[in-house]
């Protein structure tokens, strides 16, 4: 089964899940959707297409929404969603399906994989033992999903119970999405910053510019926390509660993989030859 799995990731969880799935599908490739949009390559020849994304603010990340609005697939293609989160997907997969349906595209199924939570403004990443336990379960879950994809399973998008979907994706996500891009006003950098510029290079949407040796956020943020998680000095903070909280990157995903994902990838060629294209 020739397949393309597009992904967006902030900490590597979704990229890892996409890679695991590709390993179980013959002739599958894993492609950064941010890179695909940069290159104008959102028309897919394969007849099996997946879109993998993390759940942000109970819904679909803004960049993934833009990607779905431009995605073109062959008629009759098997199109599925894969959402990762530290808890329930709420209505995120249904939200993605509705966005595609408005364009006349059918999302045959939407699958969820629980991953280690790592939204540092609310909590720190789990300790390694707990992280590894979650990842083992996640890998088993992806094997199950691969069986469904190979069988071209059709199913309603997975999610939590109705009230959680209604409040999370139906209400809270709409409120959050309206202000998400400007929410980077809460980001700041401590004096321990070494002016390495890694935060700007790892941002998948080029939302950071280095001025006078310090990062400046440009207010088209995805809230993926890639900059905060990647900072080698842990100098980037959001508000005042992220200090001392455990940072995270998926243990099977390298920094080069994250650098190869987004708008600044042309400046970082070291990750381009790997599995994440």
Task: Describe this structure as you would to a colleague.
With 277 residues, the chain is α/β, with parallel strands linked by helices. The chain has two domains: 3-176, Rossmann fold, CATH 3.40.50; 181-266, Alpha-Beta Plaits. The chain is 32% helix and 16% strand. The chain has helices at 13-23, 33-38, 62-70, 92-101, 128-150, 162-177, 198-202, 226-230, 255-259; strands spanning 3-7, 28-32, 48-54, 78-85, 109-114, 187-189, 208-211, 214-217, 236-238. A five-stranded parallel β-sheet has the order 2-1-3-4-5, sandwiched between helices. Helix 1 packs across helix 5. The longest helix is centred in the middle third of the chain and has 23 residues, at 128-150. The chain is globular. The protein starts with a strand and ends in an 18-residue tail after the last helix.
What's the quick description here?
This protein is α/β, with parallel strands linked by helices.
Give me some keywords for this one:
277 residues, alpha/beta, Alpha-Beta Plaits, 2 domains, two-stranded antiparallel ribbon, 9 helices, disordered C terminus
């Amino acid at each position: 089964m020739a397949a393309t799995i597009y992904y967006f990731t902030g900490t590597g969880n979704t990229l890892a899940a996409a890679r695991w799935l590709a390993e179980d599908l013959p002739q599958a490739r894993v492609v950064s959707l941010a890179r695909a949009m940069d290159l104008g390559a959102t028309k897919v020849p394969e007849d099996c297409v997946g879109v993998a994304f993390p759940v942000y603010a109970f819904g679909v990340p803004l960049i993934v929404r833009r990607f779905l609005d431009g995605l073109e697939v062959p008629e009759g293609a098997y199109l599925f969603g894969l959402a990762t989160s530290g808890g329930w997907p709420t209505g995120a997969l249904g939200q993605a399906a509705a966005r595609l349906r408005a364009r006349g595209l059918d999302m045959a199924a939407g699958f969820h994989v629980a991953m280690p939570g790592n939204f540092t403004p609310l909590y720190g990443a789990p300790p390694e033992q707990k992280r590894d336990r979650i990842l083992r379960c996640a890998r088993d879950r992806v094997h199950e999903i691969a069986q469904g994809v190979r069988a071209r399973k059709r199913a309603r998008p997975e999610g939590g119970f109705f009230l959680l979907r209604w409040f999370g994706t139906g209400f809270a996500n709409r409120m959050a999405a309206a202000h998400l891009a400007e929410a980077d006003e809460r980001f700041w950098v401590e004096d321990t910053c070494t002016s390495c510029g890694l935060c700007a290079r790892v941002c998948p949407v080029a939302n950071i510019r280095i001025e006078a040796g310090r990062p400046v956020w440009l207010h088209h943020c995805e809230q993926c926390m890639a900059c905060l998680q990647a900072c080698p000095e842990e100098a980037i903070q959001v508000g005042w509660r992220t200090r001392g909280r455990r940072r995270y990157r998926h243990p099977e995903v390298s920094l080069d993989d994250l650098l190869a994902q987004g708008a600044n990838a042309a400046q970082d060629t070291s990750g381009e030859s790997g599995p994440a294209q």
